[in-house]
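note to self: the first set is below, dont mix up w the second
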Amino acid sequence: MTTLHLAAGDAAAGSLVLALRGSGRDDEVLACVDDLSCGPIDKDDPDTRAVWWGDWWAPDEGRIEERVKSFWARVTKSNDQLVVWFGRYCAMEHAFFLALAYHLGEKPYSVVDVTTTEHPIIQRDGSPVQAVASTPHEALRSLLTAHRPARADEKRRACTRWRQLKAENAPFRIVTETGLSSVGEAYFDPWLMECVSTDWQKMARVIGNALGAHWTPYIQVSDGTLQTRMVDLIEKGVLRAEGDPWDMHACRVRLAEAT
């Protein structure tokens, strides 16, 4: 039986590929590009989620939709040995694990939680790594044999929590001390408002500063998601923009009350 490694996002998948190839292994890695920490999940079937992403990221011309659908079609029908990689301190990766457990049901699979594994990777500040995506591939190589079968009670808890989150159907889901929790649409807006001023700044700089200021202990949100919140603040008149706000590297922003 061949092994298929599953990861949340291209960055995590790319690091896993490098770790595997560096160990002389040619196992396949499959990325789930659907960030399930954001957007509606009351209907989290691949078709509905794919359409939602397609509405947000039209320039991709259906690529995200195609990849979301193909991921779930492959995973739910696969006879490979599935190994699920995630970090419990990353909202995207944590949501990925819960949703995967929900959709796989009783199907057997193994897990590697880089945050709480038996031999966790420790960062320079003494804290465990937050996510697969933020872990150097050299460090991931040490965990290639650390996967273990998902326990029945673990599967049940994950499925129960995902059902609760689906019922809440909040705009965002974040990591807390007790697990993944639902939050409202404006949850991340204060992060952005802390970083804007009456002076013009590149949107990418504002977003980068907001992420940097809230990087620990959990990775809660992506730069693309913060960009959508900035666009909303611009449309509501809270911020002013100079240039296309969907191009964060070209657009400049400032507080609306600047003179």
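second set (the one i keep forgetting abt)
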Amino acid sequence: MTQSISMIILPLLITLPLIVFWFWMAWDLGGNNRIPSNEKTYWMLAFLFMNVFAAVFYYVYEYRRRH
């Protein structure tokens, strides 16, 4: 019984913060008016196809520059 619960909770503990981080960076991208619209389109495509990896790149290259 405890093994089956840990097999459910452990993946949730890993994936939930990643999903929240992805939404946080996607929300910031949507509200970022400093990025030209064509570059924003490229970032959105990267978010769709590369998911969390693109969010990490966005955090490093865009978000940290502004904050």
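remember for set 2: The chain has three helices and no strands.
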